[in-house]
Design brief:
4 helices, six-stranded parallel beta sheet, two-stranded antiparallel ribbon, alpha/beta, Rossmann fold
Length: 164
């Protein structure tokens, strides 16, 4: 039997949505600081043409920088934190496997408002809203919501933050 406290896994990649998810995870863990742990995870998605354990320097460096930032935020919030850099074919299954392995109580995921579509060379990616202004969770959040062994909290930024 575990002593009171919460173990929270939070996917983190320094995006605005991920920062919001980390903020909520730290707030939740802060209630029982001495017994709670936040696990920020960065998933390096490895192309199927490469071995799963292949070293991908640019993505690994981005992941390490992201985890360093998340750990600094946790330190400032006085919450115990242990960041993990994972490699997986797809982020969703990687997050779920880590949630199982670490036996976490909760996954907190930040999601954005818009999905990016239609990259046309030099043209910027277009942002589109889902039907009736709904949030498009994307494949990662959808997978985690469908397969996580624990509760999942999905956090999105406010409409004021994106000028809606």
């Amino acid at each position: 039997m575990r002593v009171a406290g919460i173990r929270v896994l939070v996917p983190f990649d320094r995006s605005t949505a991920a920062r919001r998810g980390l903020e909520v995870a730290l707030r939740l863990a802060g209630v029982e600081r001495r017994r709670s742990v936040v696990y920020p995870v960065y998933v390096v998605e490895v192309d199927r043409a490469l071995a799963l354990d292949a070293y991908v320097p640019t993505l690994s460096a981005e992941g390490e920088a992201s985890l360093t930032e998340a750990e600094a935020e946790a330190k400032q919030a006085k919450v115990k934190c242990e960041g993990w850099l994972l490699q997986a074919r797809d982020a969703g299954p990687g997050i779920v496997e880590e949630a199982v392995r670490a036996n976490v109580d909760l996954v907190v995921m930040g999601v954005g408002w818009a999905a990016k579509v239609g990259d046309r060379g030099d043209a910027p990616m277009a942002n589109v809203r889902g039907v009736s202004g709904a949030v498009d969770l994307g494949r990662t959040a959808d997978y985690v919501l469908s397969h996580a062994p624990c509760e999942v909290i999905v956090v999105r930024e406010s409409t004021e933050a994106v000028g809606q």
